[in-house]
Amino acid sequence: MIRILISLGAFACALAVAAGAFGAHGLRGRLSSDSLELWETAARYLIYGGFGTILAGLAALHAAGHTGQSAAAGSPGAWAAVFLLAGSVLFSGTVFALALGAPRWLGAVTPLGGLLVILGFLLLAWVALRI
To answer: What 8-state DSSP symbol labels residue 29?
Structure first.
């Protein structure tokens, strides 16, 4: 489970780089400057969440190694990784959609993703203090 989260975090980073390049080269001239700014924000936050997911997963593996236990799916580090991944996908996904012209009401969902990312980083900080 933890290794899957780490892999998904790396995939999110790769997707963020691809989305950033697509926005800079494929969408320029097709979207307004405000929409391109939204797109870039979504890509940036996706990579933050991806890196955070990787770090949380590695922290969970490290913590498990120090306690002699296996890295459990329900460990605090695993939860931090889940919150970071889910939050960044939700946040960035809704912002990408808004940049492409999705209904404005979708913006009401975006802060939920942001809250999950914040909670994930706070949980990661707590895990790091316990290692």
So the answer is: T
Is 42 in contact with 19 (CB distance < 8 Å)?
A: yes
Count of positions (residues) in the chain? 131
Does residue 106 contact residue 98 with C-beta atoms inside 8 Å?
Answer: yes
Say what the pTM is.
0.91
Domain count, the chain: 1
* pLDDT tens figures, 49-86: 999 999 999 999 998 875 545 566 688 999 999 999 99
- Rounded distance, CA 19 to CA 25, Å? 10
- Which region, left, alpha or beta, applies to residue 32 given φ > 0 means left and ψ of -120 to 50 means alpha? beta
Q: Which domain holds residue 29?
A: 2-130
Q: Which two tokens stand for residue 120?
A: 């994930």
